[in-house]
Specification:
The complex is a heterotrimer. Chain A is an all-alpha fold. The two termini of chain A are about 30 Å apart. Chain B is mainly α. Chain B has one domain: ABC transporter involved in vitamin B12 uptake, BtuC, CATH 1.10.3470. Chain B is built from eleven helices and four strands. In chain B, helix 1 runs parallel beside helix 5. The longest helix of chain B is centred in the N-terminal third of the chain and has 28 residues. The C terminus of chain B is likely disordered. The C terminus of chain C is likely disordered. Chain C starts with a strand and ends in a 9-residue tail after the last helix. In chain C, the strands form two sheets. In chain C, strands 6-7-8-3-9-10 form a six-stranded mixed sheet, sandwiched between helices. In chain C, strands 2-1-4-5 form a four-stranded antiparallel sheet, with helices on one face. Chain C is of the alpha/beta class. Classes of the chains: A mainly alpha, B mainly alpha, C alpha/beta. Chains B and C meet through helix 6 of B and helix 11 and helix 12 of C. Chain C: Pfam families: ABC_tran (PF00005), BCA_ABC_TP_C (PF12399).
Chain lengths: ~325, ~300, ~300
């Protein structure tokens, strides 16, 4: 059924991967992220790194939907937009501090997840993909057309979460780390196992008593909340949001991060997200070919290494 | 009123033309070819390149020239579709469906941004435009070029329908759509038939691309994205995998959009179209004329 | 009151009648075999009982409660477990995770537990793993439990599938051809396993083509042919039943192969719908399109 070439790691590779998969890899990554501003702290570098961190959060949210549960969501940016706009509107219109908008954002994104998921999750997986794409566009066009969202020019003057970019960066890193760990914990729990059962074989999962529809909806809602909270960070970082930030391209980039890193693999999607968000900075000269290269890369990854750069390891440690 | 209907039917015939490729490919191998809308874009640009190479065309020769370009373009996009399937989809035919879908997204990106790299990000002005003498028919303002384009579109669709329902080739397609394994056992060359399906669908999309270029006058590398979505919606409305249904779906979506735009305003046009898509998928996922869309147990 | 009772079950796919008025019962802790030639409607009946197909007519009762038309997960929640004719393991997950699937319903754990790794989370996960090991021991799995399920040999995968079904702690277990593809030694072990399952107080219904196994293990045998029950009784009686002999021997026994050729198997391999399979018009209006070689 599945493409070949999953596990043929010799003992050495297995030992290496165990080291990488352990929490040490995550801790090392965190330390790296925390030390980065000491190496380079220009406003530009900080903004790039903050964006990368937010992108990591998006990828870890989408990973719950695509990687764990196997549902292709091509409009994931819709939740990002819902979160950003909700906090943006509330903070500018009602003068709330950004943090105070978070509970509302969670409620709104849960509702958005249910509204988008409930009618579509009964459909075949490929229909779901295109419907989510449609939803992503609907949200963007709606934001573009409504007055409350500021129309095409968006919302300005959103208060930041922190006084300086450095503090904001650290805050973002902490929040994103918590989000990544949370997503990973959910993935290993009863719920996360059920997601994987659904991904592997929906009928067998049903036969074991897994209410596949509810489980899929849960994945959707979790993804929505992660995306929405990332949207709050995004609004706080830029202090201005407009529909142009929430195009299909953005959804596709998050998907690429997940696929490239390794669907269902937490360290994989983190690395994937960092690579996708920093690559353009490294390859400035090839800006025109960037998305072309991403498209080709996506095909090649699926053909040659569908499990991604840092695949999920199904083998359990025998304790 | 009749203007709205006419506009709807006109746009709808474009949707239908693109939707057919979507629908045929889906019907035969249950693949959502996300890159299909980009084949349409490729068609528009191929026509653009050919016209640019040929040089100035006198207005009197516009229609014959367009038809010539159309035929060549259909060949080019058809072959591109075959190539796409061979390179990106065939190796994954037995892979999980998710892999195939992601590959299709990758293919779509490759085509869009490959074209952007080749032709630039700015819209191009089509070198050929059909003269617009308009006539008043039943209260609707209709231009001759619209009539010409609709005739071409209808001719292509009728041709396709004859091909699929009347020929051996078409029968093989339908057989594979029902059961690829048994078809293979019965001696049908499944790969060849799938290739031909891609050829036909992509050729039609390419034709639609050229026609859209000549009609709207401007083309850009992202023009296929939205029409891809619309075409899919058309296919779903009519019943994906069902050829007459898909044509009907295209026309219907055109009409719905035309009226929806009238009532809600142009800025909600796409929202309205996707709303229709979601409504149909929730209420009647098989479409109007569709066969049962079923998940195996 | 019997554990499972199927009353006048009917199921049609388009014009095709897969089950035509089937009735049978299964008592507590009873081992019942359902046999019949290919296409007799055995797997279709299983799919109706477990909720994967919605019967066209008839009722299915579990301990007196009607379960007709319920969602498969709902029926599983009431204590029905099954295996599939062509193994349906979660291939890319570990063997243990596969068996943990059976524990899904009785595992009490919410997302807060999962996020915070509360004591309850740790306890439930530990219990779940212990249970998984327990059932793998029970079915006698020799292979690697920590690796991917698809890496196991076929016979071992069958055991894992049964362990998974047992971890659900069912009152009724439906086994769809558990011995298919097993060698002689493995078949003997399967027979012993089925007996041990019965000792747990679990009723077992099996579809099986291996007559030796069926006659050996069953307390009762239900024979289907063309979607209808033609016999129901003790193995030794059924064996002598003229109708059964005719169904099997009357037309040679080339049916014994479990190839995919006719209606019953199409259920598993083809695009027949899970839910409303009954009202389908798919078969009808594609029928001519199929062009059965009228070229």
């Amino acid at each position: 059924m599945t493409a070949p070439g999953a596990t043929r790691a010799p003992a050495l590779g297995r030992a290496a991967s165990r080291l990488l998969d352990s929490r040490w890899a995550g801790l090392a990554g965190l330390v790296l992220a925390l030390l980065a501003p000491f190496v380079i702290a220009t406003p530009y570098a900080l903004s790039v790194m903050t964006s990368a961190a937010i992108f990591v959060m998006l990828a870890s949210g989408l990973n719950m939907v695509v990687g764990f549960c196997g549902l292709l969501d091509l409009g994931y940016v819709a939740f990002f937009a819902v979160g950003a706009y909700t906090s943006g509107v509330l903070s500018t219109r009602l003068g709330l501090p950004l943090l105070a908008t978070v509970p509302v954002v969670i409620v709104v994104t849960v509702i958005a997840g249910v509204v988008i998921g409930a009618p579509t999750l009964r459909l075949r997986s490929d229909y779901l993909a295109i419907v989510t794409l449609g939803f992503g566009e609907i949200i963007r066009i709606t934001a573009n057309n409504l007055d409350v969202t500021g129309g095409p020019s968006g919302i300005y003057g959103i208060p930041s979460l922190a006084t300086s970019p450095v503090v904001f960066y650290y805050l973002t890193v902490v929040i994103v780390s918590v989000a990544v760990i949370g997503a990973s914990r959910l993935g290993r729990s009863r719920l996360g196992r059920a997601w994987r059962f659904v991904r592997e074989d929906e009928d067998a999962a049903e036969a074991m008593g897994v209410h596949t529809y509810k489980i899929k909806l849960a994945a959707y809602i979790a993804g929505a909340v992660w995306g929405g909270l990332a949207g709050v960070l995004f609004a706080g970082q830029l202090s201005a949001i407009s529909p142009g930030s929430f195009t299909f391209l953005q959804s596709a980039l998050v998907l690429m991060a997940v696929v490239l890193g390794g669907m269902g693999s937490t360290p994989g999607v983190v690395v994937g997200a960092i690579v996708i968000s920093l690559l353009p900075e490294v390859l400035r000269d090839f800006a025109g070919y960037r998305f072309f290269a991403f498209g080709v890369l996506l095909i090649i990854v699926m053909l040659v290494r569908p499990q991604g750069l840092w695949p999920h390891r199904s083998r359990e440690a025998s304790s | 009123m009749s203007q709205l209907i006419w506009n709807g039917l006109f746009v709808g015939s474009f949707y239908a033309l693109v939707a057919l490729g979507y629908s045929m490919v889906y019907g035969i191998m249950k693949l959502l070819n996300f890159a299909h809308g980009d084949i349409y874009m490729l068609g528009a640009f191929t026509g653009f390149a050919i016209l640019g190479a040929v040089g100035g065309i006198s207005p009197g020769m516009a229609l014959p020239a367009l038809l010539g370009v159309l035929v060549v373009t259909m060949g080019v996009t058809g072959l591109s579709g075959v190539l796409l399937e061979r390179v990106a989809y065939r190796p994954l035919r037995n892979a999980p469906r998710l892999s195939l879908l992601i590959t299709a997204v990758g293919a779509s990106f490759t085509l869009e941004y490959g074209m952007r790299a080749a032709a630039g990000a700015d819209p191009q002005v089509y070198p050929l435009r059909l003269g617009g003498t308009s006539a008043e028919i039943l209260g609707a303002r209709i231009t001759l070029q619209q009539i010409a384009l609709i005739i071409v579109a209808v001719a292509l669709m009728v041709g396709l329908n004859l091909l699929v329902t009347r020929t051996r080739e078409g029968r093989a397609m339908r057989a594979i759509a029902l059961d690829p394994r048994t078809s293979a056992l019965m001696g049908i060359n499944v790969n060849a038939v799938i290739s031909r399906t891609f050829f036909l669908g992509s050729a039609l999309a390419g034709a639609a691309g050229v026609m859209a270029g000549a009609y709207y006058g401007k083309i850009d590398f992202l023009m296929g994205f939205l029409i891809g979505l619309k075409a899919f919606t058309s296919a779903v409305i009519g019943g994906i995998g069902n050829i007459p249904g898909t044509m009907l779906g295209g026309l219907l979506l055109g009409l719905l959009e035309s009226f929806g735009t009238f009532w809600l305003g142009g800025e909600w046009r796409d929202v309205f179209a996707f709303g229709v898509l979601i409504l149909f998928l929730s209420v009647r996922p098989t479409g109007l004329l569709g066969e049962r869309v079923t998940e195996r147990v | 009151m019997s554990l499972l009772s199927v009353e006048d079950l009917r199921l049609s796919f388009g014009g095709l009648l897969a089950i035509d008025g089937l009735s049978f019962t299964v008592g507590e802790a009873e081992i019942v075999s359902v046999i019949g030639p290919n296409g007799a409607g055995k797997t279709s009946a299983f799919n109706c009982v477990t909720g994967f197909y919605r019967p066209t007519a008839g009722r299915i009762l579990l301990s007196g409660r009607e379960i007709t038309g319920m969602r498969p997960s709902g029926i599983a929640g009431l204590g029905v477990s099954r295996t599939f004719q062509n193994l349906r393991l979660f291939g890319e997950m570990s063997v243990l995770d596969n068996v943990r699937a059976g524990a899904h319903l009785w595992l009490r754990q919410n997302f807060v537990d999962a996020l915070l790794h509360t004591p309850r989370y740790r306890r439930t996960e530990r219990e779940c793993t212990e249970q998984a090991h327990h059932w793998l021991d029970f079915v006698g799995l020799r292979g690697d439990r920590f690796g991917e399920a698809r890496a196991l040999p076929y016979g071992e995968q069958r055991r894992v599938e049964i362990a998974r079904a047992l971890a659900r702690r069912p009152a009724l277990l439906l086994l769809d051809e558990p011995a298919a593809g097993l060698n002689h030694g493995e078949k003997a072990e399967m027979l012993a396993l089925i007996r041990r399952i019965r000792e747990l107080g679990i009723a077992t219904v099996l579809i099986e083509h291996d007559m030796g196994l069926v006659m050996e293990v069953s307390e009762r045998v239900v024979v289907l042919n063309f979607g209808r029950e033609i016999a129901d009784g003790r193995p030794e009686d059924v064996r002598r039943d003229p109708a059964v002999i005719e169904a099997y021997l009357g037309r040679d026994d080339e049916d014994d192969e479990d190839d995919t050729d006719d209606t019953d198997d199409t259920d598993d391999t083809d695009d027949t719908d899970g839910k409303g399979g009954a009202d389908g018009k798919g078969g009808a209006d594609d029928g001519d399109g199929g062009g059965d070689g009228d070229a």
